[in-house]
Design goal:
The complex is a heterotrimer. By secondary structure, chain B is of the alpha+beta class. The longest helix of chain B is centred in the C-terminal third of the chain and has 28 residues, at 523-550. Chain C has a single domain (2-76), classed as Beta-grasp domain (Ubiquitin-like (UB roll)). In chain C, β3 (49-53) and β4 form a beta hairpin. The chains are: A alpha+beta, B alpha+beta, C alpha+beta.
Chain lengths: 158, 753, 81
Amino acid sequence: MPGIAVTTTINGDEVEFICPAEETLLDVLRDRLGLTGAKEGCGTGDCGACSVIVDDRLVCACLMLGAEAQGRRIETIEGMAHGEKLHPLQTKFLEHAALQCGICTPGFLMAAKDLLAKNPNPTEEEIRFGLAGNLCRCTGYDKIVRAVQDAARVMKGA
Amino acid sequence: MAFDASFTGQKFKSVGTRPIRPDGIDKVTGRARFGADFNMPGQLVGRILRSPHAHARIKKIDTSKAEKLKGVKAVVTAADLPDLTNGDAAMFDILDNCMARKRAFYDGHAVAAVAAIDARTAKQALKLIKVDYGVLPHVTDVDEAVKPKAPVLHKSVFTEGVDPKPKKPSNVARRSQYGHGDVDAGFTAADAIIERTFRTEQTHQGYIEPHACVASVNSDGTGELWVCTQGHFAYRQTCAQLLGMDVSKLRVTSSEIGGGFGGKTHVWAEPVALALSRKAGRPVKLVMTRNEVFRASGPASATSIDVKIGAKKDGTVTAAEATLRYSCGPYAGMWAELGAMTSFACYDLKNVKSVGYEVLVNRPKTAAYRAPSAPMAAFAVESVMDELAHKIGMDPVKFRIKNAAREGSKSSYGPVYGPIGIGPTLEAAQKHPHMKAPLGKNQGRGMACGFWFNFGGQTCTDLNIGIDGTVTLAVGTVDVGGSRASLTLVAAEELGIPYEQVKVVVADTATLGHNDMTDGSRGTFSSSMATIFAARNAIKVMRERAARMWDIPVEDVTWEDGHAKAKGQKRGNLAPLSIKEIAAAAPNTGGPIAGHNEIVADGAGVSFATHICDVEVDPETGATKVLRYTVVQDAGKAVHPTYVEGQYQGGAAQGIGWALNEEYIYGKDGRLQNAGFLDYRIPVCSDLPMIDTMILEIPNPNHPYGVRGVGETSIVPPLAAIANAVSSAVGVRMTHIPMSPPRILAALDAAKA
Amino acid sequence: MVQVALWGALSAAAGGKKALDIEAKDIRELFRKLEERYPGLKPHIERGIAVSIDGVIYRDTWSKELPDKAEIYLLPRIAGG
């Protein structure tokens, strides 16, 4: 069965792959490229566990086809830290215990990164609505919001 | 060697602090491996075919076309899973639920499965399996199922626990009863009585990670299973029995788990994955879709509960009675029984009676959901308590304090209580600043109490002193929410060394002895106890080694601050020996140094919580906004307070979703209409406020550090606390959960009429 | 001598008997004597039950001692989540 050849950039690296037409970007990342940080929680774009950033836009990888990655710039959780240096959001999530089971964490970090890139000084309400596309069943979101608030403070150079 | 589990009342150096959890970095970088993140070479993709009918006879399954499809390596049906349950009815139900044998009992019931070289082929193969169904009448509603004309699921079920035994089969599998005293006399003595009927709809644990496993079975009867589970040893035991394998030959590794809340204490697709692998001769990866998770893995019971409580003008409750009907899915469980046991557990009552009925319905098999059955019973009881308090003109918190169970109270489920914490949580809630926050228009405040049993169980740990003196602790309780951090603190505390020098891992079934599941709030309680004793064992060994190194009797060696110290004046010139030094000499002093412990951790003690909630209800839309939420709960001793807070907040959030929005919606065709996160709406970030927590520490006398279980109790009060708040805000008593906007509007309309 | 109360299904399996006095120093002896008197209890005991001793609920560890005059309740094994 002929697949579709795709060339794309993931976390700054040029990547090539071949995938069936119907395969989602999420399945490509997880099953073809070994990037299992993005998770499938629902497969229908309702839980945000597969959140990635495509051309500076927050996207559910399960709602995008692998073929649509052609020529685009994709960021996943695997690219968030730089070598040993964690991103301030990652550090604050750890400090504030903003994760319990951790399955939603990569999606939240991507969403929070996108939120702060667009709104470096969000109110609590803006954080809550900005992250409303990501489901967490363990934490009740309290510590997640506090972690994002603290990261925003640090990232502003406070 | 037996160690004394009694509370030591010691001062802590590590326990009670809040370091970063040891498994955290992997989880924030995407490196942590959950159930679906693992792969084996040559693995096949497994998919399951599920019944589209709520109730049907399976007349014939023709798998021939599917088997012939290129790329399909195995097709299994119930014929490939022979009954090896040996008359064990509960095991047989598990087997039947994993793969339907003669009948499909719910929309989503597995009837066949395939293993193929890729997802596309597996999907095509499912379409080629021909199932000849004889559709039968179905019943999905808990109240409909008990009616005399309801379709009966099993002709062999005659209600147990009633005398005389019924002549006709029904969907009521069992009746159970708890209580004491004379409720009729009690009601006669009451000045005020409230009697109401309540309903709660079915909810799902809602873990974000679907069930996933990779199974590999060899022709010599050995096998491996990678799976997300709350209990890899329990899964091993069940799978081995169902597949006819020796337990020791099946190695089960627990992946990181993306939420369980009780739903991953039961097997669902794992025996099927193993059967596929056995037949195909290759590993099989089987991951459920979200649709399958809702349709075919265990939700909590739907319930219908009648409660009647009577009290004197002075606030003394004179009688309390509850009749509870809980749905079990197609197989009997003890769900109503647990509801009956917990309903009045918070109170000191002279006359109390709870009767539970296990009701069979054509819905997926009910599974445990965090303090199973207690939230619904608490909703009914606490709503009536609230209404009764208002009727006699007494403050609802004072009313509960007046009737609260205390040491010496006979519990409603039988035993007399020892020292317990319901009074302190109520008093703390009463004094909490939340109670003084001003309330505006369309706003209401509600509070409620909750109770849960916690338990211990079979536990073992291995504590190994490394060659460089750093410590590895292998435990067998799956870490669902940060217990590795707590256990690291406990090991560090006992050994007297810094937290950073201990590394905790969750061992697999081949490398550690049996451990019961992480359920019943037992993870930290049980493993910390075993860790303490394992550490003490290791310390005993290290004292012996130090004695050998110094050439003095071991009685002259003590252990302090992570060092062996020589006692007495004449030993003054012997510098203390660190673990590093003792470990370095280990090859000469007797070999590897370790401490082990195998116990049945016990005496976990019951736990109580009080929740306070403020809501605002929009009278035009019926939408409810949660303004303020406070959890007060006794933890005994919070080993890592941040993760205890996390448990309180998480349980509260699940309860909020359950109270306001979550429900299984079935069509007239008996099929689940909302099997996805869009229409099964769990709380999102914008739905909730910050959740305030207050940890009380009344030590559990049966644990050296006083630790109690904490994970489950926080889901028990929210349904009632929110119902009381909403009822107060809208001026109408809400009796149907969830209190979604249409229900609130209907209640408001009915009140106006 | 301990006072033993049976609940629910256990009581039914013991012919409706709700409470009895038994001479037993630990759980194992208690189970043996109960099974002798009421063979219907055997399958329940084998499946596993919870034992409350003076208000604290324990598992069915045979060696667990029963203090003299203790109040013993036999309860179903509880499922958690």
